[in-house]
């Protein structure tokens, strides 16, 4: 899952990255409102974590511009401002959730998971297709009741297909949401990960619609 963290406090930004990447998220960082507005307006993210007190353009203005341009990605607002009127203003501007500082990283991770699930129309942390079951809270998977051993990248790929199991996911979309800027986004890298997963899952769980993309067995066939 691809997350944009917009935070000008370097310590908090580093803590967000440290908390989210081990549990399956690719975190990109941004430190000012102008860059945040551009990235959110031109790139596809599964979630944006947005601080309101930003240099160059405040977070509330950034959020309003995204929504005015039809950008619908879930946004979790972080702020040191505690007044309920400001929280209401943020939600009215298009925020999906609101977390006042200081906060526990465990709560932020839980809210991140919930927002991404709900944006895909999935309420539960446990999702199933056929014999495959994923638990996004525990980062675990079962196939026919047997636990699977997976790398973080393999789990991210399988989770993305599960969240979007009502449609065929193009390879370009998978590449964008799986890999950070410092990693290869070549199609053959994606094919290698899918090949490894197919060996672990068995044939027919991850299916290919030639010329369109990938889907899980039992959906979008």
From TrEMBL:
CDD domains: REC_OmpR_EcPhoP-like (cd19934), trans_reg_C (cd00383)
Pfam families linked to this entry: Response_reg, Trans_reg_C
DNA-binding region(s), chain positions: 124-218
4-aspartylphosphate PTM sites in chain numbering: 51
InterPro entries per UniProt: CheY-like_superfamily, OmpR/PhoB-type_DNA-bd, Sig_transdc_resp-reg_receiver, WalR-like, WH-like_DNA-bd_sf
Organism phylogeny: Bacteria, Pseudomonadati, Pseudomonadota, Alphaproteobacteria, Rhodobacterales
Domain OmpR/PhoB-type span(s) in chain numbering: 124-218
Protein name: Response regulator transcription factor
Keywords: DNA-binding, Phosphoprotein, Transcription, Transcription regulation, Two-component regulatory system
Tree of life domain: Bacteria
Entry keyword annotation includes Transcription regulation: yes
GO molecular function list: phosphorelay response regulator activity; transcription cis-regulatory region binding
Organism: Antarcticimicrobium sediminis
A GO BP annotation: regulation of DNA-templated transcription
Positions of the Response regulatory domain: 2-116
GO cellular component, one term: protein-DNA complex
């Amino acid at each position: 899952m691809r997350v944009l963290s917009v935070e000008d406090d370097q310590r908090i930004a580093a803590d967000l990255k440290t908390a989210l990447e081990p549990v399956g998220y690719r975190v990109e960082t941004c430190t000012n409102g102008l860059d945040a507005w551009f990235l959110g307006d031109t790139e596809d993210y599964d979630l944006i974590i947005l601080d309101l007190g930003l240099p160059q353009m405040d977070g509330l203005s950034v959020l309003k511009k995204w929504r005015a341009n039809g950008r619908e990605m879930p946004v979790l607002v972080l702020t040191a401002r505690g007044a309920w009127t400001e929280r209401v203003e943020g939600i009215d501007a298009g925020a999906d959730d609101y977390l006042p500082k200081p906060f526990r990283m465990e709560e932020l991770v839980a809210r991140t998971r919930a927002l991404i699930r709900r944006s895909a129309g999935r309420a539960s942390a446990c999702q199933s297709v056929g014999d495959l079951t994923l638990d996004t809270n525990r980062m675990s998977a079962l196939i026919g009741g047997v636990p699977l051993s997976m790398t973080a990248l393999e789990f991210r790929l399988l989770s993305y297909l599960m969240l979007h199991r009502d449609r065929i996911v193009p390879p370009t979309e998978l590449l964008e949401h799986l890999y950070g800027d410092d990693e290869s986004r070549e199609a053959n890298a994606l094919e290698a990960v899918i090949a490894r997963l197919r060996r672990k899952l068995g044939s027919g769980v991850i299916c290919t619609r030639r010329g369109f993309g990938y889907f899980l067995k039992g959906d979008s066939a």
